[in-house]
Structure formats: structure tokens, C-alpha cells
Amino acid sequence: MFPAAPMAGYDRAITIFSPEGRLYQVEYAYEAVKRGMTALGVKASDGVVLAVEKRSASPLVEGTEKIKKIDDHVGVAFAGLFGDARVLIDQARIYAQTHRLIYGEPIPIELLVKRICDIKQMYTQHGGVRPFGVAFLFAGIDRKGSHLIQTDPGGTYLRCKARAIGAGAQKAIDLFTKEYREDIKIEEAVMLALRGLREAMEEGFSAENIELAKIDIYDKTFKIFTMSEVRELISKL
Amino acid sequence: MFPAAPMAGYDRAITIFSPEGRLYQVEYAYEAVKRGMTALGVKASDGVVLAVEKRSASPLVEGTEKIKKIDDHVGVAFAGLFGDARVLIDQARIYAQTHRLIYGEPIPIELLVKRICDIKQMYTQHGGVRPFGVAFLFAGIDRKGSHLIQTDPGGTYLRCKARAIGAGAQKAIDLFTKEYREDIKIEEAVMLALRGLREAMEEGFSAENIELAKIDIYDKTFKIFTMSEVRELISKL
Amino acid sequence: MFPAAPMAGYDRAITIFSPEGRLYQVEYAYEAVKRGMTALGVKASDGVVLAVEKRSASPLVEGTEKIKKIDDHVGVAFAGLFGDARVLIDQARIYAQTHRLIYGEPIPIELLVKRICDIKQMYTQHGGVRPFGVAFLFAGIDRKGSHLIQTDPGGTYLRCKARAIGAGAQKAIDLFTKEYREDIKIEEAVMLALRGLREAMEEGFSAENIELAKIDIYDKTFKIFTMSEVRELISKL
Amino acid sequence: MFPAAPMAGYDRAITIFSPEGRLYQVEYAYEAVKRGMTALGVKASDGVVLAVEKRSASPLVEGTEKIKKIDDHVGVAFAGLFGDARVLIDQARIYAQTHRLIYGEPIPIELLVKRICDIKQMYTQHGGVRPFGVAFLFAGIDRKGSHLIQTDPGGTYLRCKARAIGAGAQKAIDLFTKEYREDIKIEEAVMLALRGLREAMEEGFSAENIELAKIDIYDKTFKIFTMSEVRELISKL
Amino acid sequence: MFPAAPMAGYDRAITIFSPEGRLYQVEYAYEAVKRGMTALGVKASDGVVLAVEKRSASPLVEGTEKIKKIDDHVGVAFAGLFGDARVLIDQARIYAQTHRLIYGEPIPIELLVKRICDIKQMYTQHGGVRPFGVAFLFAGIDRKGSHLIQTDPGGTYLRCKARAIGAGAQKAIDLFTKEYREDIKIEEAVMLALRGLREAMEEGFSAENIELAKIDIYDKTFKIFTMSEVRELISKL
Amino acid sequence: MFPAAPMAGYDRAITIFSPEGRLYQVEYAYEAVKRGMTALGVKASDGVVLAVEKRSASPLVEGTEKIKKIDDHVGVAFAGLFGDARVLIDQARIYAQTHRLIYGEPIPIELLVKRICDIKQMYTQHGGVRPFGVAFLFAGIDRKGSHLIQTDPGGTYLRCKARAIGAGAQKAIDLFTKEYREDIKIEEAVMLALRGLREAMEEGFSAENIELAKIDIYDKTFKIFTMSEVRELISKL
Amino acid sequence: MFPAAPMAGYDRAITIFSPEGRLYQVEYAYEAVKRGMTALGVKASDGVVLAVEKRSASPLVEGTEKIKKIDDHVGVAFAGLFGDARVLIDQARIYAQTHRLIYGEPIPIELLVKRICDIKQMYTQHGGVRPFGVAFLFAGIDRKGSHLIQTDPGGTYLRCKARAIGAGAQKAIDLFTKEYREDIKIEEAVMLALRGLREAMEEGFSAENIELAKIDIYDKTFKIFTMSEVRELISKL
């Protein structure tokens, strides 16, 4: 713990720049993401898949749901602090509903992501708050097509083809790097996502311990799979 | 006390991330929960049971009640700081009443829990406050069935089958892990809860020193047992 | 004074958790109570008694009154900082009057105590303030019967049968532990309270240096004894 | 100055409790009182006397007046910071005038003192301010009789028979302890006050360097003596 | 990390002056710019060109767009924190739209830049915030002609002929210093910009990894090149 | 500079008491006064004189005026920070004008001084500000006669016969102590003030480097002497 | 960097007094002025001249304009932080326009300067902000004649005959001290200003790298010279 002392000046009170131009609090918040359970997404030519690990610490406790529907055409998976995630997911739902009400159409995915990132950025620049310790993978379909977008605690977002966040992210990314093709179809993408998650989870890969969702260009509706559907899909692996 | 010095930077002013992405103030608040007297819950196939230790430090002082009714269909047990718990319980009652008034129906248990967790989360991210040093076990029944949900100081909640919090939690959990079955009936669940509490309390297990409550799917009403009822139940153990 | 240095991080700015989950500022505030002059209370089967030490530092200065009437049916004794106590007593009187005005009946004792504890709790969780350095013993009678309730600086309260706070509390509690019976009558309770105070005060036990008050179920009115009444009672000891 | 370092944590930012339950900032403010010039008061059976030292640092500068009239029936003497005193004296005058306006009668002395102490207490519990570095001796007459009340920087007040504050307080108190009688008449009390002040001031006791005021039950009016009246009284000592 | 300790006083809480009259937080924020990917601009006699590196960390992630259109007649490239940039770009778009609405004409480029710099300056002088960790290159055309203006984190702006910011800035500037001529035409400027970017990027210079935009005096419209257009231009290098 | 370290706790954030009951920030502010150029005043039996040093650092820069008229019947001289003085002088002029407007008569001098001292006191007790680094000598005539009053940074004021503040104050005070008489006439007082200033200024005593003003009971108007008038008066010394 | 440590207490959070009565933050802000490029002014018997160095760091970047017109009858030159200067110049323009609108006449120069200094002073006394790191030379003509006034970061202003600020100030002041005469005419003053600037700039003295402005009593209009006019004037040196 001793090495913590000299950098003591950069992690107090408000989020400020270190002499190297880094924002330590944002980087530390990202550590909370890295400690979270793995969440991943794969964009197919005709849809997007999300999959997360929701292992429970005990058989007597249900794993926390980590995939949430925001609106009919968009959902989200997250890694990091559950409480922080919930605040932003509630906000995302409000943005989506408000957009529908005012403009009479589903909110464009990137606009939704920007709004969430604006909140995240604000929490990295103003005093009296800490950054959000959570990263999201948004999956949705709008007029411009299908989207898989990652946000990080600093308010940055990245448009992705296949992506994983959380403790097992690197193993899943390694698999995606080898096997992902842009012309992948949604059914294959589901299988690739499951395989990525199997790599990322060191143990306990089973229908009880994961969540799976998809949205495709045919019915444009974000759908979370039931446990029996997941079980069936796993059996095909 | 000396090892406290190097991490001095992470526990001041506001709740901020440590370099490992941890929120020390939230973890320290959880220590307040661990020092509290044991509270536990068991979900049966037809109801939910709550039981708490309410031992008093002196025969001249009554033990503090740690099970509270929120609304007809939901109650709560807690471990941790009494003052902090009371603030949130008052808030929960207001949410429940407001929901009845506006929507003409009992508040869904998970929605109620989310509202309380939103308050808890806010106290972990904004300056000028400290987190709540209390964990809850909510027990209730709504349209979706019966619920046993734990909240922690960080604003996270967990859906549970059988759960214990506070100083003797581990002993009760060990018992539950061995003996809990999902098809347990409410009468058996009451007995299992009492046995769990007997394990958790090192001494003084008696009707005077515990509280017991249940809610079942037959009358859907949260009911705190009288001391003589508890005494009778204990005699059957 | 040297051992104060390592824990320097836990007693600044706002009241925060120590790594063991303790709130040092609240504990330090309790030290202010422990340094205060003794206050005690005894609940009889038909009433409640309060007694306090109000010794003066000099014969040229009157001792500060430490028993205050809140409303006809409830009074309070305190140990700790006089200025802090006054703020909360004023508030208690306002709550009591407001309740009478709105509901047309005396405020229930426990409700009154909860309101005062809500204020106390707030001062332990928000920045820019320190906790109240005072503990109270409320004595009153309402529809549910007679009450003796202690509050502490953290916003916790305890329903008591016989209780003492302040510098000499332990000696009085030792006496109560030996001699208190639940079927005690109010006249005996007055004598037990005086004996407890005589134990607690190391010197100077006399009608000039103490205050005594009672409320019983016959006239349900909080009554502070005059000095001559106290003198007469002491003579009977 | 070195011993100041270890207790550095208790005297910054806001007024907080030390581990022993003390409020250092309030105690330090009291030091400002102890460094002030002596002020004293004597309560007679038929009135109250105030006397203060108002020595000037230079013959070219007039000593600052330290006795102020609040209303016809009440005045005040102070020791400590002049600027702080003035703020509270202005406030006391406003309270007194407002009371007359609303209730059509002079403000009760103890009520007036409580209001001033409420302000003082507030400055010991909230952040962003320091306590008032001043103590007062209020002297007045109302329906309940004559009053001599001392307030200190923490918001506590004491009902007194004879009292002194400031640098020479102990010497005056020693005299009062020996010679004060409760049946003293106002003329004797004036003489006792002057003798007390002569003891307290190490040098320079003369009509130019002191102020003297009284209020008695005959005309119930707070009266500050002129310098020639003081000179005449001193000549009688 | 040890050398950080002595200057610890200059980088906390708010942005304050060091003894040498420097604002460290502003300088540290500029380090965030220097760590960003290269962005550059070249002003021709008949227009302005912007080019940026938008390399992605992974083939599965699209590079973040770093050239944004503000209004028809003005666009911007940036280096530094994406989240910070987005906040200011949104603000710039609002200023531009508001100006059009109120004055019925496009906002003058320098006025737009001043407004953005006013925000940046405010974040260097007031407490509770950190400076923006981003530098911009604004390119636009208004009544006064064509403009290439750089802003830095402190709120300063510079009118430029050819300029580069970010990690590879110096290499591009070296090239510009040798080859830039004021009478350069827009087509040549595009080529010079591409060559500058090729110098600045150590590897990966390709149409996929860069963005290119221009505005010229002929149609006065800010235009971002498509990837195939960029590919074609690169092939001409 | 080393001895500054142990008292580091008493001069930060807000103005707080040191263990000896001193307000260091107020004392440090007084140091700013002591570093200022000398200002002095002499009260005659029939008027008041003010004189100040206004030497310039360079022949190319005019000395700053340090005597200001507040209203027809009152003026002020100051030593300390020019910027701080200006803020309070502006405020004094507003008080004086407002008083004339509301009450139809010139503001009493002591009331004016109290208002300025109330502002000064407030800046010594509340957080987020520093005390004013300036002392004033007010000279004026009202119904009660002529007044020479000094204010200091802490909000205290002193009624004076002859007084000097600033770097050379002691030398002027020494002269006044020897030569001042209460029956001095205004013409003599002018000469005494000039002699005092000559003592206080180590060099450069001349009409160019000083300011002189008076107010007498004959025309009751504050008058600043022209440079030629000052030159003539100096020639008579 | 080591010597910075002991004075660490005086340069944090808000601008406070050091034990010697100095405001370090204001002095450090003045260092920012001293690091700025030279700005100077010369007052003639019939007008005022301003001249500044505006050298650019690179041939590809235009030097920043450092002379700004505030209103027809007044302009300003500055040394220090560009962003800070711009905020105050915008404010000065608003004051000037508002004055014209309300009073129907040009704002008096000294009144304008006072307003700007009032803002500067406020930023040296209140928490949560830092002082402005900029000094100005205001040049203008009003009913009282022509004015050359310098303001510094602390809110002080000086009426000057000839003055220079910034990195090369001393060299220019040395020249002015030798050669300035009060009866100088505006044409000579222009030449003296140019010679002063040539002394102050170590290299690069040329029409491209300087700005020059004047206002005279004949047309009373602040005029910034064009580059060719400057070139011609330089050729006459």
C-alpha cells in the first residue's frame, strides 16, 4: 500500500489532472468495471447479440440481471457497479420515452448513447461527485441500421463490431479477433457470443449463470432469452 | 492503527475510487452492517419469513425492534445503524403509500426496493454525505409472487431464497446452504429461520431476544409474531 | 496526544466511516455526554421519574436546569452540551404543539422521540455540521401507557425501564440492576431514582444540587418538584 | 508551538469533536474571552450592577465602551472580541424591539439570553463559520425579578449571583466568594462591584478607565453612570 | 513518482497559481491533448483543410470520429479527451444555431471560437471543476474570409496558417514549416495535410484510419470526405 | 520560513481560533496595514485633520490617493491594500447617501463607522473569504461634534484624539504623545499632522508626496488641500 | 522545488494572508504578468500611445492581438493570460456601452478602470476562484483629459505618465526614466514608445511582431495602426 502515498494528491476531492494529463479517478472507476462480471456483444449483418455472466456468489441468491431493455428497439448490458448502472439505465429509459413522446419515433441509438455519456462526462469534471463505475454495451436498431456501442466511465463511447468488458473481457476479445467476420448472421453471432462468454467465465458456464439477448432487423425488437431457450442454445454449442 | 495511514487518501471528504476501483466508504459502511445483530429471511414456496436478533445490552433496556412493516403486503428487517435504517424505512413507507394513492394498488416489491437503493446509491456518489450504514431484507408478496430481497449500503440489491446479514450471518447461511429446499412450505420456513437464528446468536436465543414475522400467499399480509407466539414456536424446535 | 495522529483521517470535515465501520464523530460526541452531569430515569408500573444532578461550579452561580417540560404529558432530562440540548428541546416543543394543533391530541411519546432522533441522525450523515453532543431521557404518558426512552447522539433510541446517562451513569445503573422491579410503584420509583443519583454523584447530593420530576397515570401531567419537596423526599431516604 | 501539531485535526474547517468529546474551537474562542478586559456583575436583592474595565492602550485613544443598553430594562457587559460582541448586541436590540412591538411588553431577560445563545450555538455546529469569541453578562429586570446571566461562546448560559469574566475574572470572583451575601442592597452591590474591579485590574483603576451601570427594582431602568458619578463613587471606596 | 510530492500544493481542489505564475492544472490538461491522436489543419488561399488520425485500438472497434461539422460554414477537429470535446462541440452547435436564428446569418468564426474559449477559461478560474482536456482546430469561412484557429485548454486561441496538435504534432509542424506557402491552393493543401498526417502517424496511415475534411470559398460548405474519396486522394500521394 | 510549519493549521480555509484564542488571519491582515504607507489624523477642539503619505515608486507614476471624501461632512484616510479599501469606501458612500435620502440628514459618523466595521467583522467569521487588509481613519463632524475614529481589519474601532497607522505610525504616535493637547486648534492640528507625517516618512516629505485634508466646525465640510496649499503649509513648518 | 514546501499553507484553496500580510496568490498571478510579452504606454501632452510585442512562437501562427479597443475614446493593452484578459475586456466593453446608454456620454476612463479593478479585487478575496493573471494599460481621453492607467491582478490601479508591463518592462522603463518629458507631443510619444519596445524585445522587433495604437485630443478616437503604418514609423526610428 505504500506506493499509494506519493500520488495521493491526484485522487481526492474532485477529479483533476495528474502531471501526465491523466484523470486518475476515471481510471480507478474503470478498475471497478474490470472487476465486474463479463459482458459482451456481437454485431451481425442482420442484428446484434448481448451476453453476460450473472453468476451468483451463492446458490441461495439469484444472480443480478445485467441485461436490461431500454425501449423496444434498444437494450443494454453492463459491467461494474450495479447501483451506478441502475441510475443511468433509468435515465436512458426516460430519454427514450421522452424522445418517442416528442418526436413520435424511436430514439436513434447513438443519440441515446451520447446523452448517457454526457452525464458520465459531467461526473468527471465537476467537484462533489465521483465518476460512474460502470461501462455499458448498448445494442439496438434504428433507421441507420444496427448498433453495438460501448461507453466507458469517462464519457467516451466506441462503435464496435464485437466487444467484451469486465473481468473476462480479454479472453472473449481474443476469440472474437480470431473468429469474427462482418458478414456473420445473427444465429451465428448468438453462438459466437456464447462461445466468447464460455471462454471468459472460468467456471460455471450454464444457462442458470448467464443472460442472453438479441435484436434483429426482422422484427426490430430487443428480446431477452428465457432460461430454457438459453439452455437449448448451449446444448447446440 | 498504523496501517490506516497509507490509505488515508481514500476515505475522506467524499466517497471516491481507490486505485483498485473500490469505494472504501461503502465497504466501511458494510462493516457497520457486519457489526450489527443478525437478521435473516427464508423464502418458502408459499410465503416469506423474517427473523432477527434483538438482544438488549441490559435487562433494563428493551431490545430495539428490527422488523418493521412497510405496508400490508411488505415488511423489512435490517442490520446496521438504527438511525440510518429509520430514515430509509420512513421513506419506504412514503413510497408505498404514494404508490397506493396514485395507482390504486400495492407497490411492487422490487420497485420499492429499487427506490430505496436509488437513495443509497446517491449517498455513495455525491459529496457532503456518507453512505447509509445499513442493509435490509425486504419480504413481501405482489402480483409476481413472493420476494425476499437484500439491499446493501452501496445501493445494490439481490433476490434471495434464504439469506442472513449481520454479525452471525455466516452461521445461518451455512445452515441454510445445507437444509434449504425451494419447495419448503411457510411453516417449515419459520422453523428453519428460527434454527438459523439460534445458530447465529452465540447466546440468549429466546422469545424475549428475537423478532419473527411472515407473509404468506393465503392472506398476503405481513404479520409480526407476538412474543407468546414466538415462545410457542421455539418450544416446537 | 500522539496516538491521535494515525486516526486523523476519520474525524475531519464530515462524519465518515472508519475502516471498522464506526462513525468516530458520533462516538466522540458520546464522550461529551459521558462528561456531562448524571441524568437518570425510572419507569414504574404507574408512572415515570426523572432525576438529574445540577451541581454548580460555584456557590455564586446557579446550576443549569437539566429537566425540561416539553408538553403537559411529556418531559425530558439530558446529559451533555447545554447549547445543543436547548436547540433540540425547542424543536421538541414545536413538534408537540404542532401535533396538538393538527390532530387535536397530545403527541405520542415515541413519535416525538423519533422526530428528535431524525434530526440527530441527519447531523451524523451530512457534511458541514457536527453531531449533537447530547443524550436525552424522555419521560411521558400517552394512550399506549408510560414511556422512558433514551436517545443518543447518533439518532438511536432505546425504550428503557431504568436508565442513567452522564458521568455517574454506571453507578446508578449498577444500583438499578440490583434493585429495580417492574411492578415498582411511582413513590418507590422516586426513592430509587434519588438513591441512584446519590450513588452517581460523588459529593454534594442535596436538594440544592438536584432536580426531580415525575409523571403518573393518575393526573398524566409532567411535574417538576420544588426544592422544598425534594428536600422532604431526601429526608425520607 | 510544536505541541500544536498532533491536535491539528481538531481545529480546522468546522468545529468538530475531539476524541475526548471536546469542541476545541469553542474552547479556543473562550481563550479570546479570557484575554479580554475584565467585566463583572453583582446581583443585589433589589437590582443588578455591571462594571467593566475599559482601559485604553494609549492616552490618545479612548477606551472602547463595553457596557451597552439593550432596552430600557436590560443591559449587557462583555469580554472578548469587540467586533463579535457588536454583531450580537445589535441582534439583541432587534429581538428586544420586536418583542415589544409584537407582545406590547418588555422582553423577558432569559428569553432574550436564549435567543443570543441560540445564535452562538449555531456557530459551533455548522461549517463555514467560527464561534463567537465573546462572553456576555446580561443584567435586567422583568416580571420574574432581577437577573444576572452569563453567556459563553458555546451557547451555554448561567444564572449568576455575582460573576466576572475576562483577564482579571478570578481575582474578582475570589473577592465575591468571600464577601457576597444574597441580601445585599443595590448601593452595597455597586461598591462590591467597584472593589471587585479594583482587584481585577492590575493597575489604572480610575473613573477614566472603567464603566459602571445598574438597574434596580425602583425605576426598572438600565442606567450607565457618568464619569463624574463614577469618580464620586470611587472616592467613597 | 517521488518528484510529484513537493508540488503537491499546486494541483488540488481548484486551479491556482504556482509561485512562478503558472496554472499547473491547465498545463496538465494540455498533457491530455499531447497524448491524444494527431489532428491538423492547413489554410489555403481559397479554403481550409482538416485531417485527423482516427486509428482504433482494435480491428473490432471503429475509430472515434474526431472531425465534426458545427454548421454549414464551419467544422472542427480535436485532440484530447473525447468526452470533454463532445460537451464543447454540442455547445458550439448551439451557439451557431442561435446566431443564425437571431441575426439571420452564419456565426463569424472568431466569435464562435471566443465563446468556446470563454467556457474553457471559466473552467480554469473557478473552483469545483477541472479544465477541459481538449484542444480544437476550427476551420471555417465567413465574410472576413477563411479561418484556421486553434484553441487550447486554458481558453487561449491562435489564428494559424498550418497547425497540428496531439501526439504526432511536431512531425507535421516540421513538414509544414518546410513546405507551407501562403499562396497554396486548396487541392495542394489537402495533399499537404495528408502528407503531414502520414509523418505524424507512426504506422497505420490508411483511409480506414484517418478523417479528412475541407471547406473552400467556392461553395463555402464544410465537407467531410468519404472513405473512398480519402482512399483515392491517398493513392495520388 | 521553517517556523511557519507548526502553525499551518491556523491560517487555512477560514479564519479560525488558534489555541490561544487568536485569529491569525486577522492578525496577518493587520500586517498588510503595517506594510502600507503612513496615514494619520489629529482631532482639534474645533475640527479634525487627516494626512497621508502618497509617495510613488517611480517618477513616471502618480502616487495613489489615500484620502477620500465620503460625504460633505466626513472623509477617510487609509493604510493597507488599495483594492480592499476601495470596496469599503464605495460601500461607505452608499451608506451615507442612503441615510441622507431616508432620514434627510447627514449620517452620524459613528453609525457610518459601525456599518463598515460590521462588514469587516463578517469577513473574519465566515468561510470562503479573507479579512479586509486595510485600516481606516474616519474624520467627520455631526451633531455630537467632531470625530476621529480608527477601524482595524477585525471590525473593531477606536475613538481617537491623535492617531497614525501604517509603516511609519509609531514615529508619528511618539510625536503626538509628546505634543498633543486636547485644546489644540485646527490650524495647529494641521501643523502637528504635517510634523507627524514628516517624522513617519523616512524620506521624500514634500507637497508632491503627501495628501492633507481637514474638516472644521465652522463650515462643517470635508476639504482636501490642493498641492499648492500643501506646499505653502509645509513652507511654514 | 523543495523550498516550496514550507509555504504550502499560503497558496491553497482561497487567497489568504501570509504571516507577513502578503497575498501569495496575487503575487503569483503577477508572475504570470511578468512572464507575458511586453506592453507599454506613453502619455503625451496631447494624447496617449500604447505599444505591445505580439511575437508568434512560429511563422505558421499569427501573434495574438494584445491591444483592444473598448470604446471610441478608450483602448487597452495587456500582459499576461490571454483568456483572463478577454473575460475582463468583454466586461469593460459592456460597462462602456451601458454607460453611454444610460448617461448619454462616454464613460470616464477612471470609472471604467475602477469597475474592472472591482472585479479583480473580488477574485482576490472570495473562495472558489483564483485572481486574474493579467495586467492592463488603459489609454483614453475624457472630459478630464488624457489618461494612462495601469491595473494589476490585485485590483490596484496606478495613474502613469509612461509605463511598461510584462517580460521586458524594466528595459522600457529605464529608457522612459531617462527620456520622458511631460511636455512631449503625441508624435514624439509614438517614437518613444517604439524605442521602448525595441529595448524590451530581445529580438524580432519589426512591424509584423508589434502592435501600436494612439488616441489624441484632436479627434479623441482610439486608433490601432495598420501594419504598413507601423512599418513606416519604424523606418523613421
Automatic annotation (TrEMBL), chains A, B, C, D, E, F, G:
Record CDD domains: proteasome_alpha_archeal
Gene Ontology biological-process annotations: proteasomal protein catabolic process; ubiquitin-dependent protein catabolic process
Main location: cytoplasm
Sequence intervals crossing the membrane: none
Pfam families associated with the record: Proteasome, Proteasome_A_N
UniProt keyword list: Cytoplasm, Hydrolase, Proteasome
InterPro entries assigned to the protein according to its UniProt record, in alphabetical order: Ntn_hydrolases_N, Proteasome_alpha, Proteasome_alpha-type, Proteasome_asu_arc, Proteasome_asu_N, Proteasome_sua/b
Activity regulation info: The formation of the proteasomal ATPase PAN-20S proteasome complex, via the docking of the C-termini of PAN into the intersubunit pockets in the alpha-rings, triggers opening of the gate for substrate entry. Interconversion between the open-gate and close-gate conformations leads to a dynamic regulation of the 20S proteasome proteolysis activity.
Molecular-function GO terms, alphabetical: threonine-type endopeptidase activity
Subunit-structure text: The 20S proteasome core is composed of 14 alpha and 14 beta subunits that assemble into four stacked heptameric rings, resulting in a barrel-shaped structure. The two inner rings, each composed of seven catalytic beta subunits, are sandwiched by two outer rings, each composed of seven alpha subunits. The catalytic chamber with the active sites is on the inside of the barrel. Has a gated structure, the ends of the cylinder being occluded by the N-termini of the alpha-subunits. Is capped at one or both ends by the proteasome regulatory ATPase, PAN.
Function per UniProt: Component of the proteasome core, a large protease complex with broad specificity involved in protein degradation.
UniProt name for this protein: Proteasome subunit alpha
Organism: Infirmifilum lucidum
Gene of this entry: psmA
